[in-house]
Amino acid sequence: VCVHVGFDVNTFNANITILTINTLGLKANDIYYTPHSVRRALENTALKVDDVEVFAQGHGIIQIEKAYDYLSQNVAIKCHQLGFSIKISHLRGIYLRDPAYLSVPIDFSVSVEPVFAENTESNEKIALQIHLALTCNASWVQIPSHLELMNQSRQVTIRVDARGLQEGPHFTEVLGYDTTTPHAGPLFRIPVTVVIPSSVNAACEYRLVQKNVHFKPGEIRRHFIEVPQGATWAEISLTSKSEDTTCEFVVHTIQLQKQMAFRVHEFYRHLYLSEKASVADAFPVQEEKTIEICIARWWSSLRHATIDYAISFHGLKCNSDTLHIHASEGIARFDTTASLKYEELLPVVTLKTWVQTLRPVDSQTRPLGSRDILPRNRQFYELVLTYNFSQAKTGEVTPSCPLLSDLLYESEYDSQLWMLFDQNKKLVGSGDAYPDRYSLKLDKGDYVIRLQIRHEALSELEHLNDLPFHISSKLPAPLNLDVYRTHVNALRHKNTFCSLTLPPKYTIPFYITSLPDDKVPKGVEIGCQLTGTLTLSKTEMGRKADVHNVCYHLISPPVKTKEGSKEKSSKEKEEKEPSEVFEEALRDLKIQWLPKLDLHEELVSVYPKHLPVHTAHLSSLNSGKDRMTKLDEIARAADIVISHVDQNALMSHLAMKADPRPDAATIKSEMDQQKSALIDAVCLKGCALADMLLQSESQDQVISSKQVCQYESETDSIHRSLMDTFNDVQKWIELTDVKALTFAYKHALVKQTFGRALKFATLIVENKPSQENWNNCIQLMKTLGWDHCASSYENSLLVMYPPDYVPF
């Protein structure tokens, strides 16, 4: 564990050193070198610093002059120009730290293989023969004394016997020397590290306590501890013993797990201590694994500090690390055990996010261009997957590719870059691995995600053509699942779980019930899931550190039928004949096909008073491509719809506080349909009348005096009808209502109140942003003389409505 600052600076200094040796020394004096020989020179001539642990200083301080002399003196030794590949089961060294590997001697098979330069001839490779002497200064490491190495990999066995070593870290190296030139230092090194952890048990209450510990600025205290079986979290507390000193400490812990990055089980925190004060924190742990705990005084502190600190382990173990709860099961049971000592138990299940699974709607693979060609002309390919999803309302989302999102440098694939666009192809955000870093706040609307994955083998990309993608949306408010002590209580939904103190080694079950249907977020579909956490401890520290993941699998929502419509349908089934039901179904089907087939006259002749026939006809006329040529027809069709609505009966119904009639729900549904049809008809009629006037104003034609009188008479009539319609609309809805906005905008244009028109045009853009609606706003700004605003929005349109997606 490293708590120092300046790693990037040290790397930069090392690079500058290597560059200096290469350019100023070796190349200037025509001294042959390889990357392997330069590295070996730096390692073998580095200066060890006393009182600094090997884990902090590595080989030591770089000495440029000595490294240059080393390269000059050993340039003639051919084996010093070679590299050596050391492999120990795909590892770079021997590292033992978990208790399971420390109780018996362990043999490691080490592969040593020479690495030649790319242009080395075959004769030189065949002639290679190196007599190696192997040495190690640790008695607990056993190795053969010699190794004969040719131009192929050779195996050597190293035995590590950690029995008898004291607690703490132990480091040594197996060095390989050329027997003909031992003075030149080792050709290769095999690092061996063994960590003997200390143990805590019930006798010390699973606590490690240190009193009156003095810290200098930058000083580090390390503890390697074997985590007890059953432990799930640890707590660390620091107490200041210094007066008039505010202390800043760093607590850094790491546990290693095979095939997982160290950050998965890492904890890093800055703790601040006032004089004579205490501070505490908690972190999760993995049982029966060695944990490294570092406590360090911050490097920029000015004075020494004295503190007491204690590390204690706790355990409330659930029989499943990740809880999968299926809504269809109704009740899910899980067991928990107090593994170490008395613990206060209070299970809480909280669901925080809604995960939506997407499938690609399009996939494309292609070879990349010349800028992505790797050395030796290795061609790279890309797979671009396209996903569509809708955001029901404004909220925060986190896109992620679950197959690859937790991998970066260790990933088999070269990239996993995604870009999120709105429906106008505007880039909203992008991201890579580690999805928690790329949360986006999205407005309501439709979105497109494009995911790029790259690899040099086309076949590796083709089997990802149907790769799922996740959209995690934060719930407006967390949802809690009820937890019960017994199965009977869970069935009866009575007496939820209360806290209790659990004795050591005692196991108790708890039961979790499904989420009520009315609490399930709207819009969820089969395949979606809710995710959250389970905490078991009642204490604040335990709830913070000991957290289990919860995945709640949703099912399709129940089919709900309104009570009134249910009664109506049941009565209709009893009263109507099958032939009548068939005729109504055929009528409804023909109404659906009205926009595509000319069935209006046929339907009107058979069903002259059926309101949906007339509303469907009006809708088909208004949505047609030739709408501007049928404005008169649209106005007449709207009048027909208006005439079929009893407005007095509708107003009487809306004025009622409560309807005591038994079929009140059915009546309310019918009245709502009539109100919606009436409002749509009045607004569409108003739009048609306004378009007539706007169209007549734009026409530039020569007419006779007689035609002028007739034209003015018709225009006056349309104006009066438009004003009547304007007043009728306001009887039912506000002009700022979504249904009335278009009519209000066009009415303002007719009246040439352009400021009011801009107000309604802006509201239209807010409800339905599109390039056409923005152009209407810009045109009104120009009419008002607001050229600066119009110019600004015209430039913004290029960003809001790009011609194509941003390339990767």
UniProtKB/TrEMBL annotation:
Domain Tripeptidyl-peptidase II first Ig-like positions: 83-195
Entry-linked Pfam families: TPPII, TPPII_C, TPPII_GBD, TPPII_Ig-like-1
Annotated region described as Disordered, given as residue ranges: 560-579
Domain Tripeptidyl peptidase II second Ig-like: residue ranges: 339-524
Domain Tripeptidyl peptidase II C-terminal: 570-627
Annotated Tripeptidyl-peptidase II galactose-binding domain residues: 215-302
InterPro entries, sorted: TPPII_C_art, TPPII_C_sf, TPPII_GBD, TPPII_Ig-like-1, TPPII_Ig-like-2, TPPII_Ig-like_sf
UniProt protein name: Uncharacterized protein
Species per Swiss-Prot/TrEMBL record: Scyliorhinus torazame
